[in-house]
Amino acid sequence: MRTGDQVVQDLPWRWGTQGTIFLIGGLGFMFDAWDVALNGYLIPLVGAEWNLSTAERGWVGTSNLIGMAVGAFAWGGIADIVGRKKAFSLTLLMFSIFTVAGAASPDYVTFCVFRFLAGIGLGGCIPVDYALVGEFTPAKVRGRVLTALDIWWPLGATLCGLVSTALLPLQNWRLLLLVMVLPALLVFWVRRSVPESPMYLVRRGREAEAREVIDRLVQRTGATPEPWVLPDKQDVPTLSVRAMLSQFLALWTFSARITSAMWAVFLTVFVLYYGALTWLPSILRAQGHGDYAAFMVTTLMTAVGTLGVLISAWLVEAVGRKWVIGLSAPLAALALVLFAHHLDLPSSAYAWIAAYGLVIQVTIPALYAYVSEVYPTTLRASGFGWASTVSRIGAGFVPVIFGSVLWPLLGLTTTFLAVGVLVGLAVLWLAFAAPETRSRELDRIA
Known about the structure:
Blueprint: H1 4-9, H2 18-50, H3 54-82, H4 84-103, H5 108-123, H6 125-136, H7 139-149, H8 152-166, H9 173-191, H10 198-203, H11 207-221, H12 241-254, H13 256-286, H14 291-303, H15 305-318, H16 321-341, H17 346-374, H18 380-396, H19 398-410, H20 412-433
Pfam families: MFS_1
Protein name: Putative MFS transporter
Transmembrane segments: 21-46, 58-75, 87-104, 116-133, 145-167, 173-190, 261-280, 292-316, 323-343, 349-371, 383-410, 416-434
């Protein structure tokens, strides 16, 4: 007799059932993108109001990204202990509260503190959302669905660019924050209706709740009802610092090769991505572009990423996750190097930054889908969370280091080339260290 998690993964896909979870999860992911992209638009406005140096301006992005790093491992671990549903809602609520507080900041230091705290809340969205959506999704379409979930990222970043550009004449960065919070609170309210993950309930031995959720899924998808049993119950840790440390150690005990590969690729890819996203408006302004032109080029870079996500969603099932990541990540780095090299030729520079925006959004969705599959259910959210934490800690210091050291001393071309070499080394290790996950059931991959 099959287990409950096998039944869930063999259900037919229905937009009115699993698709609803996909949409609600994606809306939270959209605000993650909006907030990260907003750093690039805030830096010139906040810097002008408080007369900040280049290094000080970098902390606008760094404080937010470091908060997201803390939130990624904290909320990922919380979701594996107390369940996906609670974490699913609370991440957005925390983000909304501290974003409003940030908009009311009386000085630069207070602003950075509130951006850090808002980042802690939002940092949990990606690992929790991917764990929840992946655990509702049938195995045969899981790669495509998890990859397509990333389409909310360029949509959120593009929406941020359009709103920021439209509000630019007001020169009011506080309004940029408040406009983002209103729809986020609406999504928080909607998230409260989402059921707990059936795979989480099954693995935790909560039979009555699991049967209620799974039976409803079977009915709503039109599948043939069948008897199923619970797998062996797994111990449920209590929420504590010791439990979260145990999760960290368990990731390496489960597979040091997989964990090291995930961390290496996440770190290098997102150093590349956040470095470009955070500083692109300032780079363009330094080349003599006005605020409006700088904001619109940045918006172009994020908008073409929507097409990249769609390409990625097709490729991950056609050729596999590892091939997509291994080829697209170095190509994205190359496009960014060529953008920096052609900055004195605006038309060429715009073409290369658009190419970068397209290709990097082929890489990131495949990477998110992949890390959501290689860990078992008991470690899925924390595995994603720790990988995301490592990437955001590394990328979090990029705004400061880039603005005060790398850009002034090495120049843009050499800086992006060095990061590209690191990306290449990371994907080579991924090719040898981790398994392909295409069309395989969760918990039966590694």
